[in-house]
Here is the input.
Amino acid sequence: MNNVVQLEGLGSIGAEQLEWLKNDLERVSASTPVVVFAHIPLWSVYPQWGWGTSDSEQALALLKRFGSVTVLNGHIHQVMQKVEGNVTFHSAMSTAFPQPVPGSAPSAGPMQVPAERLRQVLGISEVNFVAGRHQLAVVGSPLAAGAPAATQALAGAALFEKRCTGCHALDQAKEGPPLRGVFGRAAGRDPQFPYSDALKRSRVTWNEGTLDKWLADPESLVPGTDMPFRLSNAAERADIIAYLKGLPGK
Here is the structure.
């Protein structure tokens, strides 16, 4: 949606586009994942700088009945993520110029940085869709990091679907616990899942190293665990771990 016609203040979708959105969505079932593109954020990132959309609530009300909605935007030239109910918001870095963190400068606009730091604050985002999953894998990478990290996470999204979703989901317990936000979390601590005593006593904190050992041979990391799965391929383990690490919070 075009919400950048106005030159000053907050973004605006306008009555004509809202009517179009209403008519377009009427033909779509509530179980269909919906992706919305807009330039200015549809959530109030920092209204003082115009980083928000004045009539976004009207658009979001039309999207409320859908089980999965992803909103992608640019404009603020930095990665921010937010989840509100059924809607996940993603912003992205720019390849043109960086902008300051909200409130950290007198106003929005191109931010001067040392030349050697420029590639750390410019970047790209890759969006991957895996058939059968409602959520998109959105990975932002600074130019300094190059494409490999983003590519690895995208490969991990597909591998996660193939290898892991028989027992795991991101946001709800199945045969295994939910895995969103697993990085930095102590093992056996998610209240949604009845862990084995061995895992609850393990004192393991999940990071790249412990997850790699866990996926390769759970019993060697936590003797007595109930986890039956083994993944011998080190490259596949690394891709899945990169995907889990890059997931936005709820």
User: Anything to note?
Assistant: Strands lie at 34-38, 69-73, 81-84, 87-90, 123-128, 137-142.
